[in-house]
Batch of 2 targets.
Target 1
Amino acid sequence: MNDMTCIIIGGGHAGLGVLKAIKETTRGMTKGRRIRFVLFDKQPGHVRKVMMFRPATSGEEIIVPWTHYCSEGVEFVQGTVTSVESGEKRIRYTDAQGNEARFRYDLLVVAVGSIVRRPDPDQGGIALTDPQAAAGIRERWRANLQKAAGETNPEERKRLMTIAVAGAGISGVETSAELALAMRKEAAALGLSLSDTSVYLLNAQERLFTGGPEKAGRKLEQTLSECGVTVLHNRKVMREEAGVVTLSNGDCLDVGLCVWTIGLIPNPALRSMGLPLTPEGQVLVDECYRVQGSPGVYSIGDCARIVDPKTGKVDQMTCFEAGIQGNRLGKIVMADLEGRPAPIHKALKNNMDAFNIGLGENRGFLWARKWGLDFIITGKLAWKAKKLVWDYASLLR
Ligand SMILES: Cc1cc2nc3c(=O)[nH]c(=O)nc-3n(C[C@H](O)[C@H](O)[C@H](O)COP(=O)(O)OP(=O)(O)OC[C@H]3O[C@@H](n4cnc5c(N)ncnc54)[C@H](O)[C@@H]3O)c2cc1C
């Protein structure tokens, strides 16, 4: 009998999670047919997106080769999927050499994720969008420090040693902390005064961590301050031009670099893929992640709008939620293949019951609420917990 082909588009945190889950629940077989798994991704390796700031600070490699994930029964195709032809049960893609091709599927999981939001081109700065942009950020601040070492004008030296990070979500917090620590290390090596290095984190809200209690926000800000980050609340970056950042309240900051970390939007490639979408551009799925009107097609992760049918709660774009969806989809696919009722989506009781942030080597912040009590842990233990999360999200543990 012919093999059944299960294609996963996107080897991000959701795609890898669901690949593992379907493989494990089906054990690679259904009704006597072998399941052939084919993972499609446009990148040459899995990008550890949650650690995007790392190449911007320490230069760490965050791309894991696909060979790490392609065990027996799993093939990898490097290609950019352009559309899903659900009537014919095939996808169209452009391969790594630029050739157009098609691939037939029996089961398809669309997990093409999100992209990092970019400011308008005339707003200046560099957005932390991908590993290449991250490497550009690192090059820039290091070149600025080199220039600062030869600069005699104290004001210009200070400007070269100042960075503004626009956007104080988890990515902005982690990026600013790691930048401050990396800059201090480099400044010390160049014989520069550490007190001249400044990292400003611009927060549009009135405090950090608005999803949790105020005292956790305060503690996070204090921990950031110990790393060398100054948080400015109620202020958005409007633009960066010629080394001057203009803020929404009219203030200006002299900076050597402005880094944008202003959130995620659903992958714009979805707009031309031929799947039903919400006005915001996420794939419309039912409570079992099935794409409406496309038999055998499922979608999870940042690219799908996933709603708890009981509470109406919408899942957020996080790798934590993507991982849970991936696990559940393994069981759903198995149930659908066997023609029995499938488990339905259930939102986490509260997204903010636990929150973990990495703030550079041996520094972290962990908040959790249990039995109505708030627990806050900082330091090495919280850092180790965050490292575990990063490794689990990329199936490295
Ligand atoms: C800097 C940063 C820090 C973050 N920190 C956290 C955190 O601490 N905790 C947390 O829970 N979440 C965090 N997030 C959010 C988290 O990264 C996302 O929620 C998660 O990556 C979603 O996983 P995904 O697989 O749905 O999508 P993605 O990770 O975006 O993966 C999508 C995959 O699809 C591939 N792809 C895209 N288009 C195509 C196409 N047309 N054809 C083929 N392949 C394609 C991409 O190459 C990619 O491999 C962070 C995000 C960023 C940017």
Note: The first strand starts at residue 4 and ends at 9.
Target 2
Amino acid sequence: MAQQFVNSKLAPNKVVIFGKSGCPFCHRALDLLEELHLKPGHLEYIDLSNRSDVADIQDYLLQITGARTVPRIFFGHTCIGGFTDLDALKRSGELESLLKQIGAL
Ligand SMILES: N[C@@H](CCC(=O)N[C@@H](CS)C(=O)NCC(=O)O)C(=O)O
């Protein structure tokens, strides 16, 4: 179920953030991406906080991305990591071109 849920959310030209409401890194990741004004419908924030299967989802995220912390951020089907990694992409100047490559910007 967790696997199905996560995979159903990912799409080639979409940015997806799996987060939790009490997580400051999640809010910073969402703010950073919202500031870039991605194409409508190409950014989705998924709040895992109130889901009964949150642990299963995080276990599955660990399995496919190497970490179960939130945020877990996907560009298409590729996980770019968490907020620190997103911020590093911004600072290095790679972020916008990666978003353009997947068709989200
Ligand atoms: N360096 C990571 C830090 C992420 C992190 O520490 N997230 C916390 C929440 S703010 C977390 O996942 N804690 C465990 C949990 O909520 O299951 C990032 O930038 O994404």
Note: The mean pLDDT is 98.
